[in-house]
Amino acid sequence: MNLTELLPVEYSCPWCGEPNETLIDPTGGDRQDYVEDCAACCRPSTISVRIDGGGVPTVVVEPES
Ligand SMILES: [Zn+2]
Q1: pLDDT tens for each residue of the chain, 65 residues long
Q2: Residue 26 DSSP SS3
Q3: How many domains are contained in the chain?
Q4: Tell me, what CATH number does 31's domain have?
Q5: How far, in Å, from the CA of 34 to the mean position of ligand 1?
């Protein structure tokens, strides 16, 4: 596994439920939080990324108020 590659992770928009894809940079640290706009409804969501010791990302998505 090449750790310099971006990891595509799918999530459902908390606003409209449409599937979105975000690219996680594994070299950016094991805790990353950023805001992304939905590709379908353009409303912002907070993406919280946690990467465990094995390099497996977990993504929690919440609507940005
Ligand atoms: Zn949406």
Answers
A1: 555 789 899 999 999 999 999 999 888 899 999 999 999 999 999 999 999 988 888 999 999 98
A2: helix
A3: 1
A4: 3.10.50
A5: 16
CB-count exposure of residue 36 (10 Å: 0-12, 13-18, 19+) = middle
Whether 1 is covered by a domain: the verdict is no
**Is 59 a member of any domain?**
yes
Residue 3 Cα, ligand 1 centroid: separation in angstroms?
Answer: 29
Q: Which of 12, 13, 36 is nearest to 24 (CA)?
A: 36
Whole-number pLDDT of residue 2: 56
* Ligand 1 centroid – CA 29 distance (Å): 27
Which structural domain range is residue 40 located in?
A: 7-63
